[in-house]
Amino acid sequence: MVKRLEEVGRVVDRASPVRRRKMRSSGLPRGAPMEPLGINGDACYYLNSRRQIEVIRAKEHNALNLIGLAGEDSEWFYKNWPRYGREGAITGWDARKVAEALIAACARAGLWEPMERERGPGAWRGEDGELILHCGDAVLVVGDREEWKAPGVIGRHVYPAAPALPRPVDVAPEVEAAGERLLDLVRSWNWKRGDVDAHLMLGWIGAALIGGALDWRPVAWLTGGRGTGKSTFHALLKHVF
Question: In this model, does residue 209 exceed pLDDT 70?
C-alpha cells in the first residue's frame, strides 16, 4: 500500500501546475459539460449538459450513458481521456477512466437528497429570504437587487432547466397596465360585495403566482349558483397561471 501511494504521489508531482490546480479545485478537468451534484447509495446525480438532473447508477456509467450526460460536448472526453492507436492518433476515449473520475467527483460532492435540494419551476424562498422565481430556462433572484441566472446550482439548492415559462414584466408602466386589465376582467363578474371581492380575488391571484415562496398561503373558494360563471372564471385563472 505504501509503495502504491508513493507511485500515485510521483504521478501527481509530474502533472503540470495548471493540471494540479484543476485537480484540487473540482476533481475534474476544466470545461466539464456536466456538474456532479452528489451520491446516494450507488446512484450518482449530475446536472447534465442541458442543465437537467440526471441519475446514473455506478455500474451504469457506460460509454452511451456518458455521451448522453455530455450531450454535444463529448469532445471533452477525447481531450482529457484519449485512447491512442498504433501510430499515435487519437482513436477514442477511455470510458472506464471517465467513469472513475465522475463517480469520484460525485462522492466528493457528498450525499445528495433530491427532495431537499431540487427545486422545479415556480417561486421559492432563498436562504436569506430573497424571492427566487424559476422560469424554466432562467432563474430570477430578487434580493437587494434583481439578477437573472442560468438554471443550475444557486446557493444550496439546484434549479434544473425546464421548458420556458412566461417571465414577469419588468417595466413599471406595463406592470400597472397589466394589473388594471386583469382587474377589469375580474370586475366583469357579479361579485356579492362588488369591488371589494374583485380586489381580493386579484390579490389572491398575485399571491398564488408566488405561493411556493410564501410562509402562509391564502385560499380562495369560489361559490355561486348555476350559470353565474364559475367555470368561465376557472378558465380565466387557468389562462393567467
Answer: yes
Query: CA 103, 66, 155, 123 torsion: positive or negative?
Result: negative
* Cell numbers that stand for 67 in this block: 455521451
How far, rounded to the nearest angstrom, does the alpha carbon of residue 145 sit from its chain's CA centroid? 21
Look at 24-28, 178-182, 206-210 and tell me which has the smallest mean pLDDT: 24-28
What is the Cα–Cα distance from 68 to 76, expressed in whole angstroms?
Answer: 13
Q: Which of 226, 169, 238, 236 is nearest to 198 (CA)?
A: 236
Predicted TM-score of the model (pTM)? 0.76
> Each residue of 56-65: pLDDT tens digit?
999 999 999 9
Q: What are the angstrom distances between the C-alpha of 31 and each of 27, 111, 172, 209? A: 12, 24, 40, 37
